[in-house]
């Protein structure tokens, strides 16, 4: 009997101080465990990025946060790839020695891991990253020169035929001491995570291409009481390796209706020259060549290619129990997906599922969530695994 692949989405929103997943790739063990009991795991860079550390998960899909929102809403599908050509953008504000460290990391990824990188580009103006923390304890940020970032990305896409974009931006060193100290001790929030999301969202939204970000920071003095959850960011000069690894096989995005364009070779969706879908000049970048997406009420497409993934193929979503207000989880809740809310993964925000009318299965820990996923994949009601089971009732 044919069974469709069991597909799980693992969400740990960025910059909200999640007890697990709010630090340097510390949700990666959760992702590894879930990937072992499902056929396809869809998650985002915040979960899989561990600075100098990463782990190859052949059945995991590395999907940036904005793209995950579009996927959950049914606007975009995911198309697996064997390999992406990854373009690298460096912020002009990065000092020469720190820039050299990033380029050496890129060369190491090419020589040691065999990744396919294009030429790199330096932005024509400093990006001007600024960091903020809201009163509710959420990290966010701004960039002063977004157009410079977009121009650099466009050149890599049109001239270097980049299929995914890695960005290294210079982040300010004057991070609030208390916030940085708390983060290094495994408390509080990641003060730079929100600003990182702004950078990747901008490129993904504009060019519909995979993107992830690595900050450029000077090394901090050794901290004797460093938390293991933050330690991955302290062992090297750059955070770039995990980003390059993730983007190297990140799925490409399919807009609604794009299935009709499949199979056209150089002239089709994947033919990315100046004439291809991804080769957008200045007039395409602002919408002149973008496809118009139908309304969210339109049915989610069914894949014509068996490897393509759309939101209606997701079986389960795992989320911190206090972080249920995001766009992706709200969309998934409308699809009848099994949502598993993990109470142990506390965050700085308090948005539980019940006031939102969201039907979820609450569990205490990720260990318990793994048991639920195994039972769900096997077609077993979790209550059947309990010693006490009530009698069937009349409607």
UniProtKB/TrEMBL annotation:
Matches recorded under InterPro entries: DUF3326
Region (Disordered): 256-304
Protein name: DUF3326 domain-containing protein
Listed Basic and acidic residues bias regions: 257-289
């Amino acid at each position: 009997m044919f069974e469709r692949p069991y597909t799980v989405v693992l969400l740990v929103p960025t910059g909200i101080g999640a007890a697990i997943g709010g630090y340097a790739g510390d949700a990666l063990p959760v992702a590894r465990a879930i990937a072992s009991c499902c056929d396809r795991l869809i998650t985002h860079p915040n979960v899989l990025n561990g600075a100098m550390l990463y782990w190859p998960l052949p059945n995991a899909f590395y999907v940036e946060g904005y793209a995950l929102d579009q996927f959950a809403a049914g606007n975009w599908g995911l198309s697996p790839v064997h390999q992406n050509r990854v373009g690298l953008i460096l912020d002009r504000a990065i000092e020469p020695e720190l820039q050299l460290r990033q380029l050496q990391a890129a060369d190491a990824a090419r020589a040691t891991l065999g990744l396919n990188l294009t030429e790199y580009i330096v932005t024509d103006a400093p990006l001007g990253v600024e960091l903020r923390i809201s009163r509710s304890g959420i990290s966010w940020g701004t960039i002063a020169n977004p157009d410079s970032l977009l121009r650099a990305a466009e050149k890599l896409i049109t001239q270097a035929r980049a299929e995914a974009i890695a960005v290294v931006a210079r982040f300010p060193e004057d991070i609030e001491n208390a916030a940085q100290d708390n983060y290094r001790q495994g408390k509080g929030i990641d003060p730079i995570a929100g600003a990182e999301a702004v950078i990747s969202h901008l490129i993904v939204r504009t060019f519909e291409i995979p993107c992830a970000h690595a900050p450029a920071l000077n090394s901090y003095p050794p901290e004797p009481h460093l938390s293991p959850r933050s330690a991955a960011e302290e062992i090297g000069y750059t955070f770039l390796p995990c980003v390059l690894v993730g983007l190297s096989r990140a799925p490409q995005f399919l807009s609604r209706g794009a299935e009709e364009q499949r199979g056209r070779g150089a002239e089709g969706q994947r033919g990315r020259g100046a004439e291809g879908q991804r080769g957008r000049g200045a007039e395409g970048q602002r919408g002149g060549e973008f496809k118009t997406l139908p309304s969210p009420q339109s049915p989610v497409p069914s894949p014509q290619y068996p490897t393509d993934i759309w939101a209606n193929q997701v079986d389960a979503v795992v989320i911190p129990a206090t972080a249920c207000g995001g766009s992706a989880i709200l969309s998934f809740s409308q699809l009848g997906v099994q949502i598993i809310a993990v109470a142990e993964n506390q965050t700085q925000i308090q948005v539980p599922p019940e006031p939102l009318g969201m039907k979820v299965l609450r569990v205490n820990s990720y260990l318990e969530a793994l048991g639920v996923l195994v039972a769900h994949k096997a077609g077993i009601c979790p209550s059947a695994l309990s010693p006490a089971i009530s009698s069937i009732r009349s409607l």
